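Tokens in:
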């Protein structure tokens, strides 16, 4: 059951990410001129790649630091994974709070 649960939750996450990213890209490029739109899309995609790489590096670093601080290899790895997922959860909650902040009204 746990593999089915993980697969279902991950699928829901990926659907949510796709819906979020397409809406965000549309919203971000709406004010650009037709000539600047490809550049805006390129900047957004580059930023997404860099942010993904940074997040992965941060999670792997967290895992390694927790592994090095622990004694037993299996226990240290488990604690490191738990710490990395806790950090990812904190970042996700922070991002959720930022998305709930209302945008300023434009005239």
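Residues out:
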């Amino acid at each position: 059951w746990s593999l089915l649960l993980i697969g279902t939750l991950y699928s829901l996450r990926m659907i949510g990410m796709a819906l979020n990213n397409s809406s965000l890209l549309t919203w971000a490029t709406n004010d650009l001129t037709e000539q600047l739109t490809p550049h805006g899309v390129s900047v957004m995609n580059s930023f997404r790649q860099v942010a993904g790489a940074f997040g992965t590096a941060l999670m792997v670093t967290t895992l390694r630091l927790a592994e090095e601080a622990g004694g037993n290899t299996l226990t240290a790895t488990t604690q490191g994974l738990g710490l990395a997922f806790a950090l990812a959860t904190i970042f996700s909650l922070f991002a959720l709070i930022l998305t709930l902040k209302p945008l300023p009204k434009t005239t």
